[in-house]
Amino acid sequence: MRSLKINSSVLLLFIIFFSCKQSPVAESLSMSDKLVIHFLEQEKVVKTVITEDKAAIKKMVYALGKGDVKQTSCEVNGKMIFLKDNVELQQVNFSSTPGCRYFSYRFEGKQSFSSMTNEIANFLQSVKLGLDFY
User: Fold this and answer.
1) What is the rounded distance in angstroms from the CA atom of residue 49 to the CA atom of residue 94?
2) Domain ranges in the chain?
3) N or C end: fewer C-beta atoms under 10 angstroms in the chain?
4) Confidence of residue 13 (pLDDT cuts 50, 70, 90)
5) How far apart are CA 41 and CA 26, in angstroms?
């Protein structure tokens, strides 16, 4: 019986560890302390939001690198810049347009595209509107 409990505990720890594992890009950005978001319309910046809110930064960091998608021709409507001590760590382009939601970034010398969830698209919309709840 004791062996079964130990095996169950090991299995549970294994599941927790691997289900919470960050993507490599998220791992590299986990120390970000500032996030600059530029919202674009027709390739021009129409609004810029700068935040040092740890919860907001963490939400965006963990959103990256999940669900790879193929390169798309959808128009970019935003750009995020992750910083640590005012030094740029990573620039990420995004489209939050319904039906065409993705992130695009260069990581480890390779252009990558990952999917954007509806939750993150809604989060970005609330940031753009100046709402202070996430």
Assistant:
1) 15
2) 22-128
3) N
4) very low
5) 27
Residue 3 clears pLDDT 60, i.e. is over it = no
DSSP per residue, the chain: -HHHHHHHHHHHHHHHHHHSPPPHHHHHHTT--EEEEEEEETTEEEEEEEE--HHHHHHHHHHTTSSB-----PPP-EEEEEEETTEEEEEEEEEEETTEEEEEEEETTEEEEEE--HHHHHHHHHHHTT----
Q: CB atoms < 10 A from the CB of 57, how many? A: 21
User: Rg of the chain over CA atoms, in angstroms?
Assistant: 17
- Counting every residue written for the chain, the total comes to 134
Residues 65 and 114: beta-carbon distance below 8 Å? yes
Counting Cα atoms < 13 Å in the Cβ hemisphere of 81 gives 11
pLDDT in tens, 20-33: 556 788 888 999 99
This prediction's pTM: 0.79
